[in-house]
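The records we work with from here on pair a chain with its fold. These numbers are not coordinates but entries in a learned vocabulary of local backbone shapes. To see the layout at work, look at the sequence and tokens printed below.
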Amino acid sequence: MIQLETKRLIMKSDLYIENGTIKSIQNKKIDLQNIPKRINGFQFYDKHNNNLICHIGMKFSRRCNEINYGTELEFRNQGYMSEALSAFIKWFFENTNEIELNALVPNHNIYSQMLVKKCNFVEDGAFDNNTTCYILKK
């Protein structure tokens, strides 16, 4: 199981790394909270009380790794997602053979656009009429 820790958060994941590639754990039960429509990924919990704070989902799409993310409502606007995503990006490029990471961001979600730009993603064009693709290269 992949492990990652930040100043305030600890991560749990249903993924592992094999030969520099992220893979899904098959037939293993891991203590992750159920998030509707969640894909494989990473859940970040408060170090002190184990509350679920945010998540980063990952899937292989359009020939690259694509992330989505979200923060539990009561923990928004407190810097948790920025802390989690920054740590995840650093971990991702240090521990995998991957050279880029994509994020699809809804055009109406200004906060999410600000977050990916803060984490050095650059706009890579429209994915569709409602979504913009951002890319981060190693």
Summary: Strands lie at 4-5, 9-13, 15-18, 21-24, 41-46, 52-61, 64-71, 100-106, 122-128, 131-137. The longest helix spans residues 80-95.
